[in-house]
Amino acid sequence: MTEWTDPDTFAQALERADTKEKGNCFEDFEEGDVIEHDPGLTLTRFGNEQWMSQTLNHDPAYWRTDAAADRGFEEPPIHPDYLTAATLGITVEDLSEKGGYFLGRTDVRFPGTPVYAGTELHVESEVVNCATSSSRPEYGIVSWRTRGKDAETGEVLCSYERTNMIPRREPVATDGSGAAAAEESEDNGPDLPEEFVAPEGGYFEDFVEALEQADDENAAVAYRHERGRTQDDVTVASLPLATLNTAKQHHNVDVMSDSPSGDIVTYGDVTRSTALGHARSDEETWREVGFDDESFHTFVAVGDTVYAFTRVLEADDTASSDEAGTVRFEHIAFNQDDEPVYSGTRTAEIRKRPS
Ligand SMILES: C/C(=C\C(=O)O)C(=O)SCCNC(=O)CCNC(=O)[C@H](O)C(C)(C)COP(=O)(O)OP(=O)(O)OC[C@H]1O[C@@H](n2cnc3c(N)ncnc32)[C@H](O)[C@@H]1OP(=O)(O)O
């Protein structure tokens, strides 16, 4: 009898064998379903530092004890970006491993922060919406409300609503109306204010002054950040796997060569954290409050460079501490060809200038 490892024999064996599948298709989700995710991880200093270093988030409060104490933390905490990425990573095996891209997320909040190293994460998701994609019959669009909890106390540490394109087992007939509507809306020309104002510094008062100046001049407070981060094997494959994100989009070049992106792509949370890192490097962040209306517009792959652009939307003198005010930003990540790859609004407390 021939050895099964004989290449011709093995090719036939592969053809005849069933594949033990991973993940779920669109048809497997029903609104109201609650899924307790089996994977979990311990939020460690190492994991946090790996994520934050590679995405250029070098805020000393997350690295040094004295800087943490100065910001009112007991010790360097787990950063909300890493907490968000780890919460999502854990869900991928059940929600999106089958394929289909991360389209967007909103209402990202951190009711239980600050979170410290050593906390074990337990995550659950509820299916909140299952929709037909009118432009892509082989996919549906699914949204889930996900909660990342402290496994010991049950306290919710991170919560958000996320939307993915999810492959269907059976394509459906669609009228293509979504694609037609998208084409129609492209007719509007650019509508930008004449002047762009950049804040002088990164304190709360600098944002307030820039907003006042822009208001006088019918301008916008909008500026770009100098840093860029070219995507490599670490950012594309290692960081998502370090959050237990099993999406083939990030680590299986073989399968992804026959997909809309044609290649492995950067985990949306890496793209977004990188852009936010660039933005934070030009401000005096006090606390992260939340994120809304996040969208991933196009793929980021190995060799692409992630830059960031910021618009300051509003500022409010109140915050959780007298030492800070609250600012709402829109951040846009863009690539080396100036194409937007991510956008979202962010509410953050920004330190007031020390008197
Ligand atoms: C896998 C993973 C994590 C995980 O495992 O989870 C990741 O990290 S992966 C990396 C991050 N990700 C990306 O790299 C995707 C970037 N992106 C694109 O490359 C393009 O978006 C596209 C090729 C995917 C689609 O391209 P496209 O077909 O031209 O795009 P669109 O027509 O804009 O979107 C199609 C339909 O999704 C609807 N839609 C869009 N956005 C939202 C939203 N936010 N909420 C609700 N519905 C939305 C849209 O309304 C349309 O609906 P209809 O089909 O009904 O018209």
From TrEMBL:
Top-rank taxon: Archaea
Compositional bias annotation for Acidic residues: 183-194
Organism from which the protein derives: Haloterrigena salifodinae
Listed name of the protein: MaoC family dehydratase
InterPro entries: HotDog_dom_sf (IPR029069), MC_hydratase (IPR048274), MC_hydratase_acr (IPR045672), MCH/BMMD (IPR052342)
Gene3D superfamilies, per database record: Hotdog Thioesterase (3.10.129.10)
Gene Ontology MF annotations: lyase activity
Region (Disordered): 167-198
